[in-house]
Amino acid sequence: MKVQNEFQRIILILLLVFIGKDFCLSEKDTTLIVLSQVTNKEQLDNIIQFEPQYDTFSANLKFIVQLGEGKEISANAQLRIVKDKAIQLSLRVPLFGGESYRILVTSNEILILDRLHKQCFRESMQDIIKIEGFFDYYKVLESLLSNRLFMPGKKEILVQDYPDFEIKREQFSVEIVHVDKFNEVYKFVIDYTNRIQSTTINKGENQLQCRYADWEIDSDRRDRRFFPMSIQLIFNGNYKLNLFFKSVEFDKNFTIDCNIPNNYRQAELQQILRLIGNLL
Hints:
- InterPro entries: DUF4292.
- It holds the Pfam family DUF4292.
- The protein has 6 helices and 14 strands.
- The chain has a 14-stranded mixed beta sheet with strand order 7-8-9-10-11-12-13-1-2-3-4-5-6-14.
- The radius of gyration is 19 Å and the shape is globular.
- The chain is α+β, with helices and mostly antiparallel strands and 280 residues long.
- A hairpin with a 5-residue loop joins β8 (173-179) and β9.
């Protein structure tokens, strides 16, 4: 029961607090300059220029939840993102095959479909914000999963937003900090390749850290952007969610279905999370 409760807590964190490499060094180094030699505008321009660009993003992955004391929960999943609109995570529970659970997050709502027991949970984002306090959950979660610099409440960062970032430079790394009007702190650590290596969010007494590793280049795209094939989310230093991407595709055509089948009954969130924890 303790493991199930911890797993439920991790899923809540993922939903609410925001959850053989082709590595070519010569490709990476072609545009490198010492970071201390650039202006603030050039620094931010370079970071945004090197971000993954997409309208849609899809990936097959394995996630592992580390609960401490050597306890882990893992599952295979498919992630789909429609930029600025929706994030869909489909869980494939071992032995059942196909989609067993679907978690959908948009700027308006959170939806969980339990395919195995024909039940669902749906909650508006406004109701969640009323309980948790102001937080741009959708924008934060999408940006963390796609390795992007962001400001809550903005779809994209414009030149006029640059003064809202504080920049602290070392010779081969830079720390970029934004503090919003609710005193929530967003810190991005950038390496000399102009890629985000980690993002840390401090919201009151809570901290969420996102670390990126195992970079691969997408040779099928003209811009040949790098993408981190491993993402680790750490909440308050204790709970860890590791995402290991098996394949990544940009701008693939697909649709995201927000409909609930007529024969599904409404269920409490804790009830669905308990069922997921029992199966994984």
